[in-house]
Design goal:
2 domains, 74% helix
Length: 124
């Protein structure tokens, strides 16, 4: 399953047109990941309009800050290349464990445990 399909262009489009094409491709790849989260934030904002700007601000910060921080350290992350196969295997294991927890409805017990431990989120 570790396959991908890439397009290679002889003459890479540059300028405004190339930027638009790259943006379209990036959006097509990220929409399934970010769309449901953004819809959830908008729905949450619709239930409490007075806090809508804070919800959106938190979403934007949570989305943009990791990219911004990563831009400073991208040259120092050679260890990712070295341990790529280990990272993929650990990530896959965590996904399997999460799937098992969800299947047996154990995730709610974990959330309840941590809510009791750290306190619940009361909102803005």
């Amino acid at each position: 399953m570790m396959k991908d399909k890439r397009f290679f262009f002889r003459n890479k489009p540059s300028g405004y047109f190339g930027s638009i094409l790259i943006g379209i491709g990036f959006a097509a790849g990220w929409t399934p990941c970010t769309g449901p989260i953004l819809v959830s934030v908008i729905a949450l904002a619709a239930t409490k309009p007075s806090a809508a700007i804070l919800y959106m601000f938190a979403y934007v910060l949570g989305f943009a800050v990791p990219f911004f921080i990563m831009s400073f350290f991208i040259g120092k992350l050679n260890w990712i290349k070295r341990y790529n196969s280990v990272i993929v295997k650990v990530g896959g294991f965590l996904m399997i464990v999460t799937g098992i927890l969800l299947f047996f409805d154990l995730m709610t017990k974990i959330v309840t445990f941590f809510t009791g431990l750290f306190g619940g989120f009361t909102g803005f």
